[in-house]
Design goal:
14 helices; alpha/beta; 382 residues
């Protein structure tokens, strides 16, 4: 059977641009690339406690058996969602199978025809996909630019027949930076028909239960999207908000309705991971490593996007150049991944360093000193 020509042309174009994506392989390199910020994905404690919890509660089944609206709503869902609501200081939580499902499910169903979505120009692809499925009109605002956002809010919030949804991330996945959520919330509170939606995927675990709670903004935010595949080291996601929002999503969010539920093992892992988050010192160790990384990058005069999160990005423009430096770091034993266009805009290609509680101070120093050497060599060769 012949492969469609138009599809082959798109693949060929990626090859020509040196931007063809390939599946990664497991390696034994020092981890500066994974989202396992607290080391929970590799935790034997969480693994063993999860197994014992399932045995103790007689959950000896492998799958949910159906969607949550049919046969798949086993009682571990209730246990986990109550725990999430309590720990995240919110009325209700609704678990989705992934962060992608949660964002697509929310944005495709909540904003209605005639409503307005204002989103940060660097918002995650899953949110963009959800917005494309929405009947609402959408407009982007400049990245983390409060003045540009305020202008657009004033422009669109005057129509009392429209609801306006302001969408941002508390930690941006490709830059690692954060918006001024407090300033944004103050502007939003001046309007009765404006609602704040925040994706906290890369903040939960890194900043305890997220930046929204750290800044005490829970009552201002209409919806929080949290995921468990980063700081919690497992799988799944949840939307946090009011009981009315939970009820609405159960009835109208298609990515929630038309999919098999998570297995008891997945739900048990989420529960045990949160138990561990409450008592673990991994959060403190991660924060120390973040500060150490910033200090060392400044000492070496490396140019990184400003960030206090676990994500730190060094802009090295050009797919070929950034891939070459990443390969040299990998050959030195460090798993550092290049982020290429079109994932980021052309000339914004970068090396993305993800920090973890289990990275040693020596590893941080070594990877940055090697980076400084390779960047200097490339600069002199140009």
């Amino acid at each position: 059977m012949q492969f469609p020509k138009k599809l082959q042309q798109k693949i060929t174009q990626r090859i020509t641009q040196n931007s063809l994506r390939r599946l990664g392989k497991e390696n034994l390199l020092i981890d500066f690339s994974s989202n396992d910020y607290l080391g929970f994905a590799k935790s034997e404690i969480i693994f063993n406690k999860t197994h014992q919890y399932l045995i103790n509660n007689n959950f000896k089944i492998n799958g949910a058996t159906g969607s949550r609206l049919l046969s798949g709503n086993h009682k571990l869902y209730t246990t986990a969602e109550k725990q999430l609501a309590k720990l995240h200081n919110t009325e209700a939580a609704l678990i989705f199978n992934s962060g992608y499902d949660a964002n697509v499910g929310f944005f495709s169903s909540v904003p209605q025809r005639g409503d307005i979505i204002l989103y940060d120009e660097l918002i995650h692809a899953s949110i963009r996909d959800g917005i494309q499925l929405s009947n609402a009109k959408s407009f982007k605002f400049k990245h983390n630019n409060i003045k540009d956002l305020e202008k657009k809010i004033i422009r669109f919030a005057q129509d009392n027949n429209s609801e306006v949804y302001i969408v941002t991330e508390s930690v941006f996945s490709m830059d690692g930076d954060s918006p001024d959520l407090t300033a944004m919330s103050q502007i939003i509170q001046e309007h009765t028909n404006v609602h704040f939606v925040i994706d906290e995927a890369h903040a939960v675990g890194v900043f305890d239960f997220g930046l929204v709670q750290k800044l005490h903004l829970e009552d201002v935010v209409f919806a929080r999207i949290i995921t468990f595949g980063k700081g919690l080291g497992c799988h799944g996601a949840a939307i946090l908000g009011s009981k009315q929002l939970q009820q609405y999503l159960i009835n109208f969010s298609r990515s929630f309705i038309y999919t098999t539920g998570l297995s008891p093992h997945s739900l048990a892992t989420i529960k045990i991971a949160y138990d561990e988050l409450v008592i673990s010192n991994s959060k403190e160790q991660l924060q120390q490593n973040i500060q150490h990384f910033i200090k060392e990058s400044n000492r070496l005069q490396l140019s990184f996007i400003e960030s206090n999160s676990a994500i730190h990005c060094c802009i090295i423009s050009g797919n070929e150049r950034v891939k070459s430096i990443a390969l040299q770091l990998q050959q030195k034993g460090f798993d550092v991944k290049p982020i290429l266009s079109p994932t980021v805009p052309p000339n914004q290609e970068r090396l993305r360093f993800c920090l973890h509680s289990y990275n040693s101070k020596e590893e941080v120093i070594n990877v940055l000193e090697n980076l400084a050497t390779f960047v200097k060599k490339k600069h002199n060769a140009r």
